C-alpha cells in the first residue's frame, strides 16, 4: 500500500509549538522507509499519526489515495511493533501471536496456519508453547514481530523494535528483518535513531530534526550528497569533519590558513559565486590520504590513536589548535605525539554555505 503525507503537522494540546511541521512524504508500495533522527525530533509522533494513535493537527494522510485522517486504528489495516514488546505475560507465544486473529473471530484453522507460518519465518517454532518470561529478549522481539505478521497488514509500523537487544543480536535481526521484508513485500515504516539501521535496511531514509524533514533519499544519497551540515554530520561514523573558512581566488582557505585546498574543476564552477564569502568544507574521516604525495597537503599532530582492528582512528590537532578526525587502515603505523602529513581525496570534499549550512556541491 502507498502511504502519502501531505503538509502534515502536529501540535500537542497544551504545547506552544508544533512538534512536526510541513511533513511531505510519499512512501511507495513495498518500500522499507526508515524515519531517522535524534531523540525528541518527532519520530514516534509521526508514526503514531500514521497508525491513528495520535490525531493529525493539519494536513492529509492518504492510504492508496484515500484520506484516512479520522479512520480509527483498527480500520487502517496496519500492524505496529513497539520497542517494549508488549506481550501478554500469562499467554503462551502461540496465544500471543494468535490473539488479534482470535479477537477478529478467524477460524481455528486459519489462525493455526498463520501462526505456524509466521513462527517458521521467524524461526520461533520451538518456543510456541513457552511463556514470554521463559524466552530470551531476542526471541520475545520475534514474537512481537510475529504478532504483527499474522495479521497480514497492508503496512508494518515499527518503533525502534531492536533497541532492547544487545549489539550482536541487533546486527543479526537487521538482516533478518530485511529478509522478511523481501519475502512478504509489505510496505514498512521503521523508526530509529540509529544511523546504521537506517543505512543498512532502508530503501528510503527520511531524516528529521526538530520536527522538520532535513532530507529524503536513498542511503547512498545521504552518504554522498548530504543536503546540509546537519545531515552530513548525522550520517557516517566517525562524524564528518567540518572546517570553516573562506573561498578566495579559486582556493578554500581555512581560518588561520592551516588548510589550503584547491577544489576540483567541477567544484570551482559552482564555487565561483562564493568568491570572498564564508564557506565550510566537509571531509569524512575515511577520505584523507595519508602521506599526501598528491595535491594540497597539511600537517597535523596525532593526539590519540583508537585501534578498532580494521581501522585506526586518529584524533589530530592542526597548528591553530583545531581538531580533526582521520580514519586509516588498522595496519598503518601511527603513534601518539607524532606529526604527520596528510592530503585530501579531492573528489570527496563537500562544500557548504557557512551561513545557511546548505550544501553547495
Ligand atoms: N503526548 C504528548 N504530549 C505533549 N508533548 C508530547 C507528547 N508526546 C511527545 N511529545 C513531545 O513531542 C516531541 C517529540 O516526541 P517524540 O516522542 O515524537 O520524539 P522521538 O523522535 O520519538 O524521540 P525518541 O528518539 O526519544 O523516542 C518531544 O518534545 C516530546 O516531548
Ligand atoms: Mg520515539
UniProtKB/TrEMBL annotation:
Example of a GO biological process term? carbohydrate transport
- InterPro entries in the record: AAA+_ATPase, ABC_transporter-like_ATP-bd, ABC_transporter-like_CS, ABC_transpr_MalK-like, ABC_transpr_MalK/UgpC-like, Mo/tungstate-bd_C_term_dom, NA-bd_OB-fold, OB_MalK-like
Instruction: Tell me if Transport is a UniProt keyword of this record.
Output: yes
According to the lineage, what is the superkingdom? Answer: Bacteria
Sorted alphabetically, the keyword list is: ATP-binding, Nucleotide-binding, Transport
Q: Which residues form the ABC transporter domain?
A: 3-235
Example GO CC term: the record gives: ATP-binding cassette (ABC) transporter complex, substrate-binding subunit-containing
Q: Does the keyword ATP-binding apply?
A: yes
Per UniProt, what is one GO molecular function of this protein?
ATP binding
Would you tell me the protein name for this molecule? ABC transporter ATP-binding protein
* Species whose genome carries this gene: Soehngenia longivitae
